[in-house]
Design a protein that fits this description.
2 helices; single chain; mainly alpha
């Protein structure tokens, strides 16, 4: 048995929403990591080094890319555009 659901969301718009959510989540992880590093400064723990420093551009960079790609995909979903 197959359940058919009608929706007005196109495939690329769903991808855009998923990319936007994932991008915002990655940026949130980046902000959390930044706050953890700042907390280390307050408690006199040695600064982060080496591979830990790669986490910040990874989270912020990937998050920003996913947000940008999601925004591009959702550009078609703006209100007022005629649907075919």
């Amino acid at each position: 048995m197959r359940i058919m659901v009608k929706h007005n969301l196109r495939k690329h718009e769903a991808y855009g929403l998923i990319l936007t959510f994932a991008g915002a989540t990655w940026i949130g992880f980046g902000i959390y990591g930044t706050l953890l590093a700042a907390n280390r400064l307050l408690t006199n723990v040695p600064l982060i080094s080496g591979t830990e420093l790669l986490l910040f551009p990874l989270f912020f960079g990937l998050g920003a890319l996913m947000l940008a790609f999601g925004e591009i995909e959702l550009r078609e979903a703006l209100p007022g555009k005629g649907r075919r």
